[in-house]
Design a protein that fits this description.
The protein is α+β, with helices and mostly antiparallel strands. The protein folds into 2 domains: about 80 residues, no CATH class; about 90 residues, no CATH class. A 4-stranded antiparallel sheet has the order 3-4-5-6, covered by helices on one side. β5 and β6 form a beta hairpin. It is globular, with a radius of gyration of 18 Å. About 25% of the residues are buried.
């Protein structure tokens, strides 16, 4: 649980998330959203958890606890996007963040679409296996709309985690990336 919260907090401050900006603006209404966003990116924010971290269970080790460096680049999302594009579903499965086979689903335009994620990182939809979750998402959406549409499968497909909470696959990828950055 701490690891997931840590990953979310890290993302909020490294990208100057709009929700975080709105929260700060509610408490300091004289500042503009732009001023707040720029200020967040200039800050050196550290997020610490006082308890011991369990590396064996994919937790972040103490030395890597969300130390967010000052923004040096104009677009801090650029590096994150490059890292995200290199991650494969099979990497996340091998790291033990999610287990396969696993049911994936999405309610899209009133229709519930279901797929299966396999151990090798492929996603099966309507009996056809796809090499990426995005290609499976493309196919799934096309069955509803009748036309091929580019789809970010990480954001499209959802799963139910061990606590029973509905999550996007991107949530598992963020945990994987947080763990990778910590090593």
């Amino acid at each position: 649980m701490d690891r997931q919260v840590n990953a979310v907090l890290r993302q909020l401050v490294t990208t100057a998330d709009r929700g975080l900006v709105r929260l700060i603006r509610r408490n300091e209404p004289k500042l503009t959203a732009r001023e707040i966003g720029e200020s967040i990116l200039r800050h050196d924010i550290q997020i610490d958890a006082p308890q011991a971290w369990n590396v064996a269970k994919n937790s972040l080790p103490p030395q890597s606890v969300a130390t967010v460096p000052r923004a040096v680049k104009k677009n801090p999302k650029r590096d994150t996007n490059r890292q995200e594009s290199r991650v494969k579903l099979s990497d996340v499965i091998k790291a033990g963040i999610i287990a396969a086979p696993m049911a994936l689903f999405r309610k899209y335009k009133g229709k519930v679409l279901q797929a299966t994620m396999h151990k090798d990182g492929t996603v099966e939809f309507l009996g056809e296996r796809f090499s990426t979750c995005s290609r499976a998402g493309d196919k799934a959406r096309s069955t509803v709309t009748g036309r091929q549409m580019a789809t970010n499968g990480w954001k499209f497909w959802q799963y139910t985690d061990a606590t029973g909470k509905k999550r996007e696959l991107d949530y598992a990828r963020e945990i994987y990336l947080a763990n990778a950055r910590s090593t």
